[in-house]
Write a structure and sequence with these properties.
Blueprint (H helix, E strand, L loop, with lengths): L1 E3 L4 E3 H45 L33 E7 L2 E9 L3 E7 L11 H7 L4 E4 L13 E3 L2 E3 L11 E5 L5 E5 L4 H6 L3 E5 L2 E4 L2 E2 L12 E5 L4 E7 L4 H10 L9 E4 L8 E3 L8 E3 L9 E7 L1
């Protein structure tokens, strides 16, 4: 068939083919455009959803730093205990209630007392307190316990864990004890406080008497008659100690003076009388504040043992 018009003649089959070709091309173009649009819309939708998720989600929490390895964790030591400072030994001579007290006070946290005994008898090794102290590099020394006319201890003496003499259960001259136990603690007590067997287990011990002050009070029943020089050891019940001697006085007056103030910068809780009279002696090294001092009258006699002050 032929389409006729005034200007041109076109076969119908050619026109149909041309229209069909153009329609096919148009469909392909539309299909491609649709795919592009769907692809773009999917991308836009994904972007929008991601943005919405970011805006509504909880902000991320910062991670804690990793703990150091266990071996690097060091526990600090406990804070040191705050207490009264340790004072160096010092010598002083003071008068209380008409009695002159001459001696050395010290702190048992830095210094200790040791017994120096002479197994051979009085004066066999050391003629005086100074010689005994220097043999141990001690800073001070006093005469110590009572002894018999034969030179044996009148009571138990323990030096470095070695006992000498025997337990004095009957006499007032053995009613009190000064001792240092195995851990190193020192005290003044009545002889019944630790007993015979307990005394033998001490590292250092001296049996003497009578007690002059107990729990801060002067002991009753002390002699008010005989006047003599006294050698004394005093203690505050804690870390502070005093060793020394007095001018001639009675036991009762010495006890009263100690309990009412004493020779120290602290209150006396316990005090023990040691051998006195012609045995009373004090020696202090020049290394001690207030030293050197040597108080040994010419008429003094040799003694069996000493108490010496030494650094720990």
């Amino acid at each position: 068939e032929t389409l006729r018009c005034p200007f041109v003649q076109i076969p119908l089959w050619s026109m149909r083919r041309s229209i069909h070709t153009n329609l096919s091309r148009h469909r392909q173009h539309v299909r491609a455009m649709g795919m592009r649009i769907r692809f773009l819309m999917r991308g836009m939708l994904a972007t929008a959803m991601a943005g919405a998720a970011c805006s509504t989600s909880t902000p991320p929490v910062a991670e804690k730093p990793a703990a150091p390895p266990e071996k690097a964790i060091v526990t600090p030591p406990p804070a040191p205990r705050i207490g009264k400072p340790v004072s160096a030994p010092s010598y002083a001579a003071v008068t209380r209630s008409g009695i002159r007290f001459s001696g050395v006070e010290f702190d048992s946290r830095s210094h200790r007392l040791v017994v120096i005994d002479q197994a051979g008898g009085p004066g066999t090794k050391y003629p005086d307190a100074g010689a005994a102290a220097r043999s141990r590099n001690a800073l001070a020394a006093v005469n110590a316990g009572f002894f018999t006319p034969e030179g044996d201890p009148l009571g138990l003496v323990v030096e470095g864990g070695v006992a000498a003499g025997s337990w004095n259960q009957a006499s007032s001259l053995g009613s009190g004890i000064w001792y240092e136990d195995a851990p190193g603690g020192s005290a003044i007590a009545r002889r019944g406080a630790i007993g015979r067997e307990g005394a033998k287990r001490c590292r250092e011990l001296l049996q003497a008497g009578p007690l002059l002050v107990e729990n801060g009070d002067s002991v009753g029943g002390l002699s008010t008659r005989k006047t003599s020089a006294r050698t004394i050891i005093a203690w505050d019940g804690g870390d502070r100690w005093w060793i020394g001697r007095t001018s001639p006085c009675t036991l009762q007056s010495a006890a009263a003076a100690l309990a009412s103030g004493g020779p120290c910068r602290w209150s006396v809780a316990h005090a023990l009388n040691l051998d006195g009279g012609r045995s009373s002696e004090l020696w202090v090294s020049g290394q001690v504040s207030g030293g050197p001092v040597s108080e040994r009258p010419l008429w003094n006699r040799p003694v069996r043992n000493f108490l010496a002050l030494a650094p720990r």
